[in-house]
Amino acid sequence: MPSLSHTLSIGPITLDAPIVQAALSGYSDRAMRVLARRHGAAYTIGEVLLDKFVVEAGANRRNRNRISVDPEEHPVGGQLMGANPDDFPPAALKLVEAGFDVIDINFGCPVKKVLGRCRGGFLLGVPETALEIVTRVRDAVPAEIPVTVKMRRGIDAGAESTDKFWQIFEGAFAAGVAAITVHGRSVQQRYDGPSSWEFLREVKRVAGDRTVIGSGDLFSAQACMAMLEETGVDGVSIARGAIGNPWIFAGLRRLLAGQELPTPPSLFEQADMLREHYSLAEELHGEELACRVMRKFAIKYARLHPEHLATRDAFVQVKKRADWMTALAGLYAEDLPGRVPDDDIDETVNCF
After folding, report:
1. Is residue 344 very low, low, confident or very high in pLDDT (cuts 50, 70, 90)?
2. Is 109 a catalytic residue?
């Protein structure tokens, strides 16, 4: 039975709980990561970055912020995606120089334009290239920096894809990766249909004492606990379920401690979290960009409000800090009970 004594090892890094915030394209910036760490995540991964972007990024504030690390968030992983093995080592070294503690390699993205450029999940069909990338990154970064991989179960559920999955899985560990995160859907599935926890259970059985982190269909603390119990994976990587719901991390810690979950956060608790998130976002991005970035988060936070549709529509109109504070003062003026959101997660969110 998983418990709070259940630590998670990623090479020389030992985490105090098996709770990971996944890389989320367009979401897991420094502000989201710090918030997640403050509220129970043991480890976070930054949004996926193209290897060429990392190497060639200019010195403007927005580019710097995408590879910036806050002292509060260690340990933190930086995730890379690309197609050419030659481009990965210099990008990995630049992320190490920026302060990332782990380099994660993305072989899971199912987005059509990514696949068309031979990146992400495409590489699950080309084991030789995938393993060359892993080897080149492992050889390039200092020995004390763990290298990890994110995979899906294959291009599709066919026997050939499964064989290639195992070739990459075993080859990556042989090349020195410290952990592999496996999403239970295929690339072809994208976000449709259930994630195969049965596949995750088989992966962990084969892996033995090697670190495997599970991913897929983790929209509540209860689901995270169920994955740990049913599959035996060493940790859970929470992706879309964490957007606008930092309480998921603390909730899982409560379950691991043998405690009951609290009721959904009240409106005052939600407002406090929104203010905290906005403050971190403005510190990172500045007022104008923070308001734009926070709109997409606030739409997700609104799902916990009893008047969630009206709250969502109000947040869409926010354009500056004054609008933000006015919306919070009006929408969260009374400390009403929060709600458990419906499972209507926006499937356009890119999480890998």
Report:
1. very low
2. yes
